[in-house]
Design brief:
- This protein is 66% helix and 1% strand.
- The chain contains 49 helices and 3 strands.
- Among the domains are: 171 residues, no CATH class; 81 residues, no CATH class; 108 residues, no CATH class; 216 residues, Leucine-rich Repeat Variant.
- Belongs to the Tango6 family.
- It comes from Puma concolor (Mountain lion).
- InterPro entries: ARM-like, ARM-type_fold, HEAT_TANGO6, Rtp1_C1, TANGO6/Rtp1, TANGO6_N.
Length: 1058
């Protein structure tokens, strides 16, 4: 395009004002007075008549008005130097030419006014006053006039001459545009291409002025760019034209191309991108006018050109932002927001379009790798905008682009996108690559800002994007250990990235293959050292801004080794607890259940391993091989303890719905059966193993009994239990479990077509326990037990609840237990028979703990209800209860204690003497634990009976404990046996019967016993003695004040503990 030509030496330019030029422009735009009475006049005729009338009025004004004489001289001077045809038969072109001349006059006048302006010095008295405006500044009304003029110039001088498919046709814009398209005479000289070239050249010349250029490009950049594309790149006819036949010379075409690239570089880049996309071919705009035609598709040369120009915009610095803004801001979500900005943020289709544009390598790039190297850093910058609205839009675009690139070119995306995002986490793992100067204690490896940005970016890409591509999942696996360590650290205090870390871990664990997920959880727990974790020389630390940073750990001094060991042990404990918290969110997907089954299988391996004793041989006398073996053995013991700790945490944190399908239930039962078989192989059968085995087999019976609707595929899974059930039925010593295992095997093999009574009864009993009415009835029958022995029943209920954890509240008993439980709930007072009583008595000797405990509770219930058949066999029942006191299971011996206490309440004189004899004379016959249990029975009897039944046998039994050899026995016996009596001494009418004996015994114990616990118990009883006597203490204990005070003084002087 031709450069601007300043008009030098013109006196008119110096004296012509802006007002006259703007008045002339207003005159050209003034609407004409049409003859509304004539119906024959059309819109086209009105428009042509108005244009002709305004042109004539302008000429008359310039010739006759003396105030416009200077404007006429300026216009004529510029017109004489103009090189384009100004007059034409076509009125529209004549109007456009005169308007362009006036705009040139306006530009030259503004330039001279600005050149002659010299602003004065600011006044020191009023420094706050605004500086003087330049005389070339246009007011708001003047700017509106110029904008209207530019609109007419583009409408009459540019748009009508664009070929179909280039730009938006006038017919598709407004009704006035359709009229203009019809009135323009393309056959009249000058040629349409020459007119387009002239209009674009003059508009670009005017745009050299800053304020006028902003008005032109703000609204008309797209039309001018379309005209330049057509002038510079539209292919000509195949036959070469003669020089006199060519409309544009090659020089003019070249200048059009250069002008196009210049304005594309000068304007706001998002605006350039948006207009190029429209030129390339946007969606067709709907036209309501019947006469308008559908918009043509952009020609191929224009689509290629726009694609090339868009790629150039993209390859420039900040080109990604320009492309994104150019697409998003056109939807109303501009830099300042917009009314439909929220709708734009939710438009994923548009985000996908931008992602495809950014992920496609342009032809101008040397290679895809070069393109990714330049573009990927800009894509990552889209994640870090501070403005909330803009950030939300850009982050969605960045996430979609990230995923699209990872899907199309995973290797390049891993190198240029994933590695930079995960670099702070990899820096902790690759400490060997850090120079020694950077490994000084206290050195910051990862700053607070880097770590926060890394976690936030990972969350946006992985969790928000939610696309489990292989490259994404594989890239996150090496740093999972560091992420989990960071998650554990955030749990220690308040942190804004805690929820992000948790969501990332839950996402990756849910998307991984189940084997890899279990392996990752093993690494989190410390069971698998192959999973990378935070190196020992690195540590997380709280940062100044409330975030977290990673530093080199300080050197541990010898004095701090104990503290370091404590920190290590406590951190391992916290890791296991935090892992339990994390798995509590993974129950629905089944991961928690699978990991629980894995821990059970590991427990089976622990049972199968040969126990090796840790030798106490000094380390100095061990060889290197022996030291390695010792280290391996120690690590193995640690792994076993860790497995047990994991199981404890999982049982505590998981809910009843931990198992989500039949396969997991079968795996759980299989692990239980395998552990039972392993325990038998090592001769390590225990009560707990027996209970767990009964519970798991009962669970299978429930499923086979109809609690779960089983399909053919479920029976295929259940058949995995057949070999284990066969082994249990052959080798397990308990005949009841053997029989149930054989019956379950038959039922599974026949797909439930044949089921024995044992399976049906076990399943039905378990289902009955789920019945709330049955529970209510049982609670009503045992209400007295709860009042008299609330603490023991709470322990029992807690024990039963712990057995139900993890199995959806199905606790299947074996057949005998079901029978006993049914006997307890179905038979009321006076309805039991001798056969039923004998059946329950036999069950009281059953090796199965639930069966035995249920039988003892049933007998106790009958005694409380005064069942005649049961009371007739009081001696036999007492023998049964006393024998069960020897049992090691809490559930059993507490039931026996309850039975003896109830029996003593019915026959106190007969039962109590036997208990006292066993309590006092059983030092050599019974273990201290049994004597403690008998003492517990006596205490319950004392509470249940009236306190006046205190004879010599009672007191002798209590006093005898003070001479027992074991202090572990003397301490609790004195504290419990004496204390209860002393608190109620106020109700005893004759204190002299036992006052001397009690006081003498307590004084002797407090003075002579060597154990501080026993002396403390004696002092405690003396305190209760005063409390029990209350106001009578001064009367009853007057003669004992002196020795008691001596004891207190002696203990206060020589015993620190007191």
């Amino acid at each position: 395009m031709a450069a601007r030509r300043p008009v030098a030496g013109s006196g008119a330019l110096a004296t012509c004002g802006l007002e006259s030029i703007l008045e002339a422009l207003k005159l050209l735009l003034s609407p004409g007075a049409s003859d509304s009475g004539s119906l024959q006049i059309t819109k086209h005729d009105v428009l042509l008549a108005t244009l002709s009338s305004n042109l004539s009025a302008l000429e008359d004004k310039l010739l006759k008005d003396p105030h416009w004489k200077k404007l006429k001289l300026l216009r004529d001077e510029i017109a004489n130097k103009a090189e384009w045809p100004q007059n034409s038969v076509d009125v529209t072109w004549s109007f456009t030419s005169q308007t362009l001349l006036l705009l040139l006059c306006l530009k030259e006048t503004m330039i001279h006014l600005a050149a002659d302006f010299s602003p004065g010095k600011p006044s020191l008295r009023t420094p706050e006053a605004a500086p003087a405006l330049s005389p070339d500044t246009l007011s708001i009304s003047q700017q509106k006039t110029v904008q209207s003029v530019l609109q007419f110039v583009v409408t009459f001088g540019v748009c009508p001459y664009l070929v179909p498919g280039v730009g938006v046709p006038l017919r598709c814009r407004t009704a006035f545009g359709a009229v203009v398209q019809d009135v323009v005479c393309l056959s009249a000289p000058p040629d349409a291409t020459r007119r387009l070239y002239t209009s674009c050249r003059i508009l670009l010349n005017i745009a050299h002025h800053t304020s006028l250029g902003s008005l032109i490009f703000c609204r008309h950049f797209g039309d001018i760019a379309a005209g330049l594309c057509q002038l510079g790149f539209c292919p000509t006819k195949r036959k070469p034209l003669k020089p006199e036949e060519e409309v544009l010379t090659e020089e003019e075409r070249t200048s059009s191309r250069e002008a196009l690239r210049d304005i594309l570089d000068q304007v706001y880049q998002p605006l350039a991108v948006r207009e190029l996309l429209i030129l390339q071919g946007g969606p067709p705009q709907s036209c309501t006018d019947e006469k308008t035609q559908v918009r043509c598709r952009a020609p191929a040369w224009l689509r290629r050109l726009c694609g090339q120009l868009l790629s150039e915009r993209l390859m420039k610095p900040s080109g990604v932002q320009a492309v994104v803004r150019g697409i998003l801001e056109g939807a109303g979500a501009g830099a300042a927001g917009g009314s439909d900005a929220e709708a734009m943020a939710a438009d994923w289709k548009k985000c996908d379009l931008i992602a495809k544009i950014l992920a496609s390598c342009p032809q101008q790039s040397l290679s895809p790798e070069d393109y990714y190297r330049d573009i990927c850093p800009q894509i990552l910058d889209l994640f870090h905008f501070q403005d909330k609205l803009t950030a939300r839009q850009f982050q969605r675009v960045a996430t979609t682009t990230f995923i699209t690139m990872s899907r199309e070119r995973p290797q390049l995306a891993s190198k240029y996108l994933l590695e930079p995002v995960l670099a702070p986490l990899h820096r902790c793992l690759n400490t060997a690559e850090i120079p020694e100067s950077g490994m000084a204690p206290g050195t910051i490896l990862v700053t607070e800002e880097e770590l926060s940005r890394c976690i936030e970016d990972v969350f946006k890409v992985y969790v928000v994007g939610n696309e489990p591509l292989t490259v994404l999942v594989d890239s996150l696996l090496p740093v999972l250990g560091v992420l989990f360590s960071l998650y554990c650290f955030t749990k220690q205090s308040v942190s804004h990235i805690r929820s992000l870390c948790q969501e990332i871990l839950l996402w990756i664990l849910g998307k991984l293959e189940r084997k890899k997920a279990i392996a990752s959880l093993k690494g989190f727990a410390g069971l698998d050292n192959s999973v990378s974790s935070l190196p020992s020389l690195c540590q997380f630390r709280a940062a100044a801004q409330g975030g977290i940073m990673i530093t080199i750990k300080e050197t541990v001094c010898d004095e701090d080794e104990d503290e370091a060991l404590y920190q290590k042990v406590s951190s391992e404990q916290c890791r296991v607890e935090h892992l339990g918290d994390l798995l509590s969110h993974c129950q629905e997907c089944g991961l928690a259940g699978d990991f629980f089954i894995f821990c059970l299988q590991e427990l089976t391996h622990v049972a199968m391993e040969n126990e090796t004793e840790l030798k106490t041989k000094p380390f100095s006398s061990k060889s290197v091989l022996e030291l390695e073996q010792h280290q391996t053995l120690v690590e193995g013991q640690g792994q076993k303890l860790l497995v047990l700790q994991l199981l404890a945490i999982l049982c505590e944190r998981m809910s009843e719905q931990i198992f989500t399908n039949i396969t997991q239930v079968v795996d759980f039962v299989a692990a239980t059966l395998q552990r039972a078989c392993a325990s038998l192989a090592h001769q390590a059968e225990s009560t707990v193993e027996s209970q767990t085995l009964s519970m798991s087999m009962g669970l299978v019976a429930v499923m086979l009994g109809g609690a779960v609707q089983l399909k053919s595929g479920d029976f295929a899974v259940l058949k995995q239990l057949l070999p284990l059930l066969e082994k249990v039925s052959n080798v397990y010593p308990d005949p009841v479990i053997q029989e149930l295992a054989a019956d379950l095997r038959i039922t599974i093999s026949t797909h439930g077509a044949f089921s024995t009574d044992a399976v049906s009864v076990a399943a039905q009993s378990t289902l009955n326990r789920k019945d709330p009415e049955g529970k209510i009835e049982e609670q009503q029958q045992t209400s007295h037990e709860k009042n008299s022995n609330g603490s023991d029943l709470e322990q029992q209920q807690s024990r039963e609840k712990s057995r139900q954890m993890g199995l959806k509240s199905h606790t299947p008993p074996i057949a005998q237990e079901a029978s006993v439980s049914r006997t307890t709930t179905n038979y009321k007072s006076g309805s039991i028979t001798t056969d039923q009583l004998q059946e329950v008595i036999l069950s009281a000797y059953d090796p199965q703990i639930p069966t035995r405990a249920a039988a003892l509770r049933t007998l106790s219930c009958w005694i409380e209800q005064r069942e005649a058949k049961a009371l007739e066999m009081q001696e036999k029942l007492l023998k049964i209860f006393l024998e069960n006191l020897e049992h090691e299971d809490t559930f059993v011996y507490l039931s026996a204690i309850q039975g003896v206490a109830l029996l003593s309440d019915v026959y106190p004189e007969k039962i109590l003497l036997g208990l006292l004899a066993q309590y006092d004379g059983g030092k050599d016959k019974h273990t201290p634990e049994t004597r403690m249990k008998v003492g517990e029975v006596l205490m319950r009897v004392v509470r249940a009976l009236d306190l006046y039944r205190q004879d010599d046998e009672h007191r002798n039994a209590r006093f005898s404990v003070s001479s027992d050899q074991g202090w572990e026995w003397r301490y609790p016996a004195i504290d419990t046996a004496f204390s209860f009596t002393c608190q109620f001494l106020i109700h005893i009418t004759n204190m002299s019967k036992c006052g001397d004996e009690v006081t003498a015994c307590l004084i002797a114990v407090a003075k002579t016993d060597h154990e501080v616990q026993v002396r403390r118990a004696a002092i405690h009883v003396i305190v209760l003695l005063f409390r029990g006597l209350s106001q009578k203490a001064t009367e009853e204990l007057r003669k004992y004040f002196s020795p008691i005070l001596k004891i207190y003084k002696t203990l206060d002087k020589y015993t620190i503990d007191m």
